[in-house]
Input
Amino acid sequence: MAYSEENYLMLSGIQHFEFCRRQWALIHIEQQWADNYRTTSGELMHKRVHDEELFERRGTILTVRGLRITSARLGMSGQCDVVEFRQSKDGIKVQGYPENWLIYPVEYKRGVPKEGQEDELQLCAQAMCLEDMFLTEIKKGSLFYGEKRRRHEVIFTEELRQKVETICGEMHQLFERGYTPKVKITKKCNACSLNEICIPKLQKVSNVSDYISKSIGEA
Ligand code: SF4
Output
């Protein structure tokens, strides 16, 4: 199946969707957003990556920043922080260069590697878009974590690719229905940038007046 351009969703939403379906729907369907430390510092980090020179060559590596990507197969569009083109006889031709190149995406994240797979899935989706655009195979890429200041390599296994396809399909289904999933309270709620909009606590009481009474009681 191929999606038409007007139905493309934001690829960066994959990380929200994997973290919590409801968070993704609040941001991408209901267009709500709340900055907290995590999202703001993450944005600053991405801005720094995208602000730098768009293109540079150092020896056998070409580095492109802020490359826009799409995939009709996934119905996604987005932007890569960094894409490296590494000189290799097994690679593809790139316009303007006589050598062959292997493609290697790098995504910048604040903090440390997460418990969940959201970052790996987002990076794999980027690789799948790049594969569709350059008609090549991309076997691996890296996540760079700001606190650790080092790269964590990700292999794009068949399992990871399958999960990306499933998630993208589910995102499109929910988006078409305009459906926001109900609250599912987990420990993730404490770190969620939309906690104050979602108000997961409300789901623990039968109605809003119970919640207000309970809050007054606690105060
Ligand atoms: S507060 Fe919890 S349920 Fe609500 S959007 Fe965030 S993670 Fe999801």
Summary: Residues 20, 22-23, 183-184, 188-189, 192, 194-195, 198, 200 surround iron/sulfur cluster (CB under 6 Å). Residues 111 and 147 are 5 Å apart (CA to CA). The chain has a mean pLDDT of 87. The first helix runs from residue 13 to 19.
